[in-house]
Amino acid sequence: MTAILAGALLVGVLALPEMRDALERVMATHMLVQIPLLAVAGALAATGLPVGWKAQIAAWNRGGVSGTALALIASSWWMVPRALDLALASPAMELTKFASLPLLVGAPIALSWAHLGTIGRGFVIANVLPMWAVVGWLYVVSPMRVCNFYLIEQQVTAGIGLLGASVALAAVVGALAFRDAVPTVIVDEQLPELLLSDRASTAVLASR
To answer: How many domains, the chain?
Structure first.
């Protein structure tokens, strides 16, 4: 229950007129701060769901595939420049953003990630990070404004931010993967010694 309240509180803070104005005034903070935090709010709330609810969702979300697919589709829409324009121009679309990101992106990912397995998580990361990089590169090199509400200078800054985020997350994922692989390397190096030890034990037993 505490996690649900914390997620709702985060959404409430982000929905404050002053906070919305501050974050949506700049394209980079709109894309790289407000939108991710709304998804985080949903993920935080999802961790506090009752066990029975999680079990019912898991029955529909076998292997985490359905929830992850839903989150990828919903998040892809908010990467489109037109979506940002609509959210700024239409209160209905702004409300849709505040509802869809926690409910259709953050919560499904939180409830699916542990069930995906290593290969599934790698597949998601390998698709999301390049998409961020491509969108960021397009924002940087585009000779025209892609969002009517933002100047081209803000567009370039947002593109650089997306590129930086994709590179930074790729570095973190690579470092974690390398760290997890270290114990396997140590075991492989110790394997000859273990084999020799087993052979010695076998010889002793045979001599008896």
So the answer is: 1
Total-model pTM: 0.82
- For residue 157, the one-letter residue type is T
Whether 60 maps to a domain, the answer reads yes
In a domain, 206, yes or no: no
What are the pLDDT digits (tens) for 129-176? 999 999 999 999 998 999 999 999 999 999 999 999 999 998 998 888
Q: Which residue, among 58, 153, 157, has the nearest Cα to 111 in the 3D structure?
A: 58
Judge whether 208 lies within some domain.
Answer: no
Alpha helices for the chain (secondary structure H): 2-15, 17-24, 27-29, 35-47, 51-60, 65-77, 81-89, 91-100, 107-141, 152-207
Angle formed at CA 24 by CA 18 and CA 29, multiple of 5 degrees: 110
